[in-house]
Amino acid sequence: MRIALAQMCSGIDPGENAEQLRSLIAEAAAGGAAMIFTPEMSGLLDRNRSRAAGVIRTEREDTVLAAVCSEAQKRKIWVQLGSLAVRTSGDAQDKWVNRSYLINPAGEVDARYDKIHLFDVDLGPGESQRESSAYARGHRAVVAPLPEAKLGLSICYDLRFSALYEALTNAGAEILSIPAAFTVPTGKAHWEILLRARAIEAGAFVVAAAQYGRHADGRSTYGHSMVVDPWGEILLDMGEGTGLGFCDLDLGKVGEVRSRVPAVANRQRFEAPATSS
């Protein structure tokens, strides 16, 4: 299965981001990819929430989603649209969701996933973030069928919570998608090791399309979009810069690795330790 990963530097204009996505999807299809993966917040990356509020739309009204669906249909390619900021209602007081989409080659949405673990952190001076102040968290893990495999959906900060990936692989996931907009400090410290850990413990492919660079809203992201095989070997690391990377997945390797080290089959339920009073 030939896939493409888009490493983007999304900005504050959804129209510009949509055109970039169209171009990347067309390039992926021309390169023989059956599927393209894009980063978290492909359609808008803006930490100025007052400004962002003016362009975030409901799913039905979202022009980026419409453009991606149209291009997927035109190019006859699967798209894992990393995520979009989406309104859940017309009420301006309601929180948004950080929503990932699986779009089929007919241009239809096959699956949706709302980010469960929201990025509420204090990394140091000037690096405090509260995603939950504007976004509502999701409550349901999602595994979606592809023609050749099952795909487990997640987003960025979810990467730190192994229980989610245990649930996805228990439901049959063989490919784990982890679109991201990792900060530079956390990316340097944790990105590669966490991706490899998720692949190894799941005996699954990890596909992680990432944002990179200095964005229009002033933030910087780490890049290094990556594909890791079920044994933990890195098949693709896009490093710095933006553009498209290609990788061929030998899906038979999932069964091979899981038969050699049957960690998924050997999972056991157990009693939690008693809490001290």
Structure commentary:
With about 280 residues, this protein is an alpha/beta fold. It has a single domain, classed as Carbon-nitrogen hydrolase (Nitrilase/N-carbamoyl-D-aminoacid amidohydrolase), CATH 3.60.110.10. Helix content is about 25%, strand content about 25%. It is built from 6 helices and 16 strands. Strands 5-4-3-2-1-16 form a 6-stranded mixed β-sheet. A 6-stranded mixed β-sheet has the order 8-9-10-11-14-15, covered by helices on one side.
Brief description of this entry?
With 277 residues, this protein is α/β, with parallel strands linked by helices.
Topology:
Elements: E1 2-7, H1 14-30, E2 35-37, H2 49-53, H3 63-75, E3 78-87, E4 96-103, E5 109-114, E6 120-122, E7 128-130, E8 142-145, E9 150-153, H4 162-170, E10 175-177, H5 184-202, E11 205-208, E12 212-214, E13 220-222, E14 226-228, E15 234-237, E16 243-248, H6 252-260
Parallel strand pairs: 1-2, 2-3, 9-10, 10-11
Antiparallel strand pairs: 1-16, 3-4, 4-5, 6-7, 8-9, 11-14, 12-13, 14-15
